[in-house]
Structures are given as C-alpha cells and as structure tokens.
Amino acid sequence: MLRWSLRRRGRTVGRMSIIESSPPGERTQVAPRARRRTVTLFGISLAYFMVLLDTTVLSVAEPDLAASLHTSTAGLQWATTGYTVVFAALLPSSGAVADRHGVHRVFRAGVAVFGVGSLMCALAPALGILVGLRAVLGVAAAACVPASMAMITRLYPDAAERTRAVATWAATSGAAMAAGPIAGGALVGLAGWRAVFLVNVPIAALVLVLTAGRAVRCPRGHRRIDWAAQAAGCVALALGTDALIAAGGRSWPHAAGSGAAAVLAGAVFVLAERRSPAPVVNRVLLRAEGVGAGLAVGAAVNFTLSGGLFVLPLLLQQEYRLSPIATGLAFLPLTLPFALNPPITGRIVLRFGPRPPILAGMTLMTAGCLVLFCAVRWDAGYVLPAFGLLLTGLGVSSALPALVTAIMGAAPDGTAGAVGGLLNATRQSGATLGVAAMGATISLGTGSTYAFLLAAVVCAASAAWFARGSATTQARPDDGRQ
C-alpha cells in the first residue's frame, strides 16, 4: 500500500490510499482555529470556576469577617445567602435573557459585573453594603452560567467534540469545590477576609480577554420573560430565608411576619405562573416522571454541603482554635473526593445506570452527617469528624454527576436546557435554605450538633422519595411487557 502523507484529505482508489495535501489557506487556518477554541473554552470554564468558587471560598473567612464588621451569626448567614438567593431565583429566567439579548453579550456583561462587584465587596465598609453587593454578584453569576453552556454549543457544533468540551467545563465544578476552602484559608491567613473577593478581579479580567473572539457570538432570540413572576419567586425565597434566620436569632415576631409574607409571595408566584404565557418554570417538566424526586435530591445535596460549609468553619476556628489555613486544610477529606471521584461515578453510571450511585451517594451523605453529629456531640477530636467529612464528600461526588444524567434522561424531548437550569436553580435554593436552617441551630443555642442531624434527615427523606419514584419508573416497562 502506497501512502503520501503530505497533509489531510484522503481518498481511496482500489487498495491504494492517497492522502492529498490541503489547500494552503486551510493548512494555515486549522491549527489556529483549534487553538482559539481551546483558549475560549478555557475562558468559559474559568468563569464557571469563579462563580462556583464564590459559593464556598467565603466559608473559611466567616470568623474574620464577623470580627471585622462586628456582625452576628445572622449577619454571616446573609453575607452568604445574599449571593445564593439571587443566583437561585434568577437561574430559571437567565437562559431566556441570554437568548433575547445575545449569549456572548450577556456572558461578558455578567463576568465584568462579577469582577467589579467583587472589588467593591472587598472594599465594603459595613455588612449591609456587603450583603447588597453579594446580591449583585448573584445577578452576575446567573447571567454567566446558562450563557456559558450556549457558548460551548456554538463553539463545538460537532456532538462528540461538544461532549468532551462540556465534560471539561463541568469538571471545573469539582475543582472549585475542592479549591474553595483551601484557597479561602490561605487568602484569609495572608490578608484577611477582603482578599477572598479581590482574587476574583484578575480572574474576571482574564476571562474577558480569553472570550473576546467572534467564534462564540450567537444571534439574538425572541424569548419572552415574565418579570413579575420572576420577581415574586425571588421575593418568596428571600423572605423564607429571612424567616429562618430570624428564628435562629429568637426574633419570633420577625420570623412569623417574614414567614407569612413568604407564603403570600409564593402564592403570588404560583398565580402569576398559571396565567403567564412565558412561565419561569416549565410545568411539563415538573409533571415528568422522576424529575420532582431528582430535584429534591439536588436540593438536599446542596442543603447539606452549603449548610455544612457554613457551620463547620465556626466550629473548627472557635472551638478547636484552628487558624484559617488549618481550617481550609481540615476540609480536605470533604473536598478531595469532588475532584477524584466523578470519573469513577461516570463509569458506574455507564454500566449500571444513575440510580445506584445516587442512592449510594445519599446513603453516604446521611451516614456522614450522623457521624458528624456524634463527633460534635461527644467532642471526639478531629479523626471522627474527618471520617464524617470523607463520607459526605464521597456521597456528594457520587450523587451529583449521576443525578444530572438521571434528570436529563427523565426530561421530555426538547427540554434538556430548561431542566438543567431548573436543577441548578433548585440546588442553589437548597444551598440558601441549608445555610439559613443549619445556621439557625447555632443561633438557637444548640451548638452545631443538631445542624448535622437536620441535614441527615433531609438527605434520608430525599433519598427515600427518589428510591420510591425511580423504582416505580423502572417497574412500569416490565409491567407493560407482561
């Protein structure tokens, strides 16, 4: 067999394979185009890393932030949830906003606002200003995440290449979770809590440089947005969070008033959704088999993870007298599985489906929370809490990757993007409620003990719901064949 390996473009004549040379213009363009795509993908992934890093990096800075701004546990809760409340509430509509105003434009605007907002957070002179600026960061984060997925789709039209690109993008979530507490501890140890926000400024600038090309500019769409329903949903989540935080501070009239207002705002949201020609939540998704239980699992995972990341630094630094850097290192049993375990989970999902790793992950999380409950209750030192953190980290890194597969598989045709946005919104809502509810146990004087017992109950309940729903879904095809 005769071969001329000049460049690409082959044709076969009989048993002779001839590889013709590409035109000069193509030879000079292919490699730079591939490099530009790789650079742009790195920029998009770096933006996702920055957004997720901000959900965890502040946890280790809590004691220093409280001392600097003279705030209570309730103030710390709002400094954390001010970001996640807005992030969660806007995620369902942010994809429509990106489509309507241009994906590339919305993404870059979100990154720029995130960078500037982070700089202003670092300069915040008072807690109220910091909470307001954290809400601005939530708006910017909601603009970035759905737009980044659309940009990847535009950048990689080939399905196989797009799958690999999305895997690279998604892998940054594990890296952000793993790096957050350690990076936060190092930054706080070196320069105090303000450094936690300053680190976002050069990252945002780099993202803007890397994503400046024309390759990911998408045409505008005409999707409608129901801003009244969106605002009602945001207000309902914020008031519900306020009610939990006020209850933790034993401010019962405040808690009752906020709780009643949250119920009212929730009712307005439901009414607006029913009448809206462009609802925030696609009702078809909620009626799909298995979606509701899967969303509950996603909320429970982030409830436990974010709530635990809020409670544990206060415990480790105030009761165990650990430095910020030592506190960040103490989280390694929890965060290392986020970076190491997902590939193993992926192989299990390919062989056995998503149900076993989801149930195994939720079982591990329930067990981990119970171990943490016992360790704190009986002051067991660090070894037993480390084991509880390891179980929890293995549970999170087993359940979440499989959950995405399960939710996408249960979604009706043509709704994958919408259900993905709904899953992210539900997870961030769970994170908000986790910080509020688990943090309230500290304010109520029970220490951090019952925080982990509460998380164990939430994980076990969601696992039971998912097990029942997925078992029913698997049984129906067999019943139909008999």
UniProtKB/TrEMBL annotation:
Domain of life: Bacteria
Keywords for this protein: Membrane, Transmembrane, Transmembrane helix, Transport
Subcellular location: Cell membrane
Cross-referenced InterPro entries: MFS, MFS_dom, MFS_trans_sf
Transmembrane regions: 39-61, 81-98, 110-130, 136-156, 168-191, 197-216, 254-272, 293-316, 322-344, 356-378, 384-410, 450-467
Coiled-coil intervals: none
This protein's record includes keyword Disulfide bond: no
Major facilitator superfamily (MFS) profile domain boundaries: 40-474
PROSITE patterns: MFS
Gene Ontology terms, MF aspect: transmembrane transporter activity
Pfam families cross-referenced by the UniProt entry: MFS_1 (PF07690)
GO cellular component, one term: plasma membrane
Membrane topology: Multi-pass membrane protein
Record-linked PANTHER family: MAJOR FACILITATOR SUPERFAMILY MULTIDRUG TRANSPORTER MFSC
Name of the protein: MFS transporter
Gene: mmr
